[in-house]
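Handout, tutorial session.
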Amino acid sequence: MHLHISHNDLDGVGCGILIKKYLKNVNTLYLNYNDVDQALEEESGGYDGVIITDVSPSKRAYESVLGETEITFIDHHPTSSWLKGNHGVVHDTTKSATKLTYEWLEAQGYDVSPYADFVDCVNDFDMWHMKRTDSLQMNILFMKLGIDRFEARFLAVPSAEFGESETLIIEIEEDRRDRYIRNSAKSGFQFTDTQGRSAYAVFCEEYNSEVGNYITNELGVDYVVIVNAQKKKVSLRSIPEVDVAEIAVRNGGGGHKNAAGFSVDFGFGMKCLLRDMGVFE
């Protein structure tokens, strides 16, 4: 049996669907960036090999298990480019991890063609090409179904064409999403960062890419800091000329030049608020 570690977003779960469908005997963990090192070091023992997709471990964690188990690494984030050249590493920043996993399985002789349209749809969303009208809708379906139901649906039916009930779910959610994006954009504030770049900070718990894209277009800022207080995550979205991955890496996270993020362990001023309210010392 293999251990499969993947990101817990649409692209990471796309990898998981392909790996489970064709390699069968696999235990998959869907994780945030910050949880990869611990999982690799504590969970990889006893498996025939480890497959890591759409996330990357630190160099320390990678080298701690290297030689003890066979590692296959498939990723497209610039922050993991230091792994290029190592045995078992597939790394290409021009394609989603789902598409790289598809091509990796195809090169091993698997007939992955039933998933070609699904993979193209995930790639269109994750790489933000937006050449397909249904790639945003695919991410909506992923968010509404959750990982387990979404995975089960596409393990059973590879087609990216939505069924009647899925279309209804998407239409209802699209109306709510549009209102949510507009209201979220009104709740933040604009500032100039330490490098003189214009930025906008906002609390938001979903639709990070759509909210980031809306705010950069409507307000003309260089990048957006999207704070999910409930999950203690910070997402960063930027215009093409601005690299926010360096901010994410500096704070223990990772990602792409224009879409990155990291986790935090502070309370977003909750204790200060309670003190101001006179109910906490």
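The second record follows below. Compare its token runs with those of the first.
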Amino acid sequence: MEARTLSRIEPAQDVLAASRKWLEPVRTALDRDFLAAYLTGSVLTQGFDPVRSEINALIVARLLAPETLDALARALPAGKKPPRFAPLFMTQRQIEKSLDSFPIEWVEIQEQHLLIEGQDVLGNLQVPRTYLRLQCEHELRAKLILLRQSYVLSAAKPDRLEAVLRTTSSGFATLFRTLLRLAGEAPPADTAQVIERVADVHHLNAEGLLGIYLVRSNPRRYRGHELLPLYRKFLAEIERLVSVIDGMPVT
């Protein structure tokens, strides 16, 4: 097993066992085209919930011909009970050619992955950072628009804002980690610590930014009158953050 990085934790043994069991028919379907299987995403962070969270798996193949895709479709386990898997199938060539198109995603995967089978094909990748700042601003602005739209459309029924915060929290966590990397820091594995550090680096209100994390990590249901102040504070801090990022140089 590879060395542990600063930004991830080791998953629980039962999660690892379930992942390897899920992989067995997938590897059989890929046969000689199989290169590697990784765990990525929230399963390697604090706060992973094996009941509610999906396990992200990156499967790397030599080729993904149409007949291979058909074999994968037949082989994928169909169980609906947790843990649930969200696989990403790519060839090694597709990964290499997409590094400049998805720098946030590949930096995230490169710094936060666990090889569970096969040969390591990510270790020597060089992800260009040229567009990292621009992609970060683009995605933050897009999420800000979504937050505003959802706020207006849910004004009559603010209970609906809980689903907005829960579904967008993972994407914001990725962007917050990217912001720390742009600041030259290694993001912690704990999402709350990441958010607090982003607030510190960019002189934002940590309490306002943490609202989305609190809703995401708390299994209880929030009422509309509880959600509205959390949502407004979070929206205000994201607006301030976008202004800060807009002023950062593109290197």
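Points raised in discussion: The chain has nine helices and four strands.
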